[in-house]
């Protein structure tokens, strides 16, 4: 074993430990904010593993998209639904957890024996390495052109769908003046309704909680 | 470095993701577990691309597609969680039984 292989083995071990530990933390820690930050740790160690696999472009995309977009989105969602409540305990919850752990351990054992016992036909050629970006670009615009364009359409659909799903329901102006109805209060902290028209009723709505606080 | 190391690691991550998907009560944590499982699949694809398909790296192309789909899935899933939270005032998975019976 020469030096490069030793460095690779050691960094693989460190990244694997980081990733498994952070993934267990994501699943097992009760505080969801810690879970979200540990999820970022999982993504970053995954990017390191991609670097070990000679894929610098996908490692960069992993850091940009997962850590920069998905993880931040999850943190925003946690802060938007941040309601400290203790879930009502379910009877025989430990039976569920135990059965699930048993099934997952069995699945892991099955997959591991399959991986180890399969005779893989390794490629003898040198890895493409730094030419990966060129190869990926050629794939995108020749034989994977239709999935590439479909992915862009799907991203647009997801964008519009997320906006439509997450926006507030439209509240008419005449009901906005009757603020005392408890049915219209949103189950969130009071905040400024910026989207409902430019008239004065929403200003009074935004101003009323602060006046109550005084 | 062996292919099997990466595959066993991806299998472990996938099983952790399944465990979190089934046992967690918070809806946001369910989405995080789905992200873990997608990452395990990505690691499998990348390992195959590096060890079995070194010249014609189709695994990396597939991984890029999976990353794009995962981003779309996270956005729509979190929007659904927000809408459910507005309607039901909770994120407990045990109380989401609108479509159950």
Structural overview:
The complex is a heterodimer of chains A (214) and B (101). Chain A contains eight helices and no strands. Chain A has helices spanning 3-28, 32-52, 56-80, 93-117, 132-141, 145-166, 173-177, 201-213. The radius of gyration of chain A is 25 Å and the shape is extended. The termini of chain A are far apart. Chain B is elongated, with a radius of gyration of 17 Å. The termini of chain B are far apart. Chain B is built from three helices and no strands. The longest helix of chain B is centred in the C-terminal third of the chain and has 31 residues, at 58-88. Helix content of chain B is 76%, strand content 0%. By secondary structure, chain B is mostly helical. The chains are: A mainly alpha (214), B mainly alpha (101). The interface between A and B is large, with 87 and 73 residues.
Task: Please name the defining characteristics of this protein.
heterodimer; A: 214 residues; mainly alpha; 8 helices; 69% helix; 0% strand; disordered C terminus; B: 101 residues; 3 helices; 76% helix; elongated
Quick take:
Helix content of chain A is 69%, strand content 0%. Chain A contains eight helices and no strands.
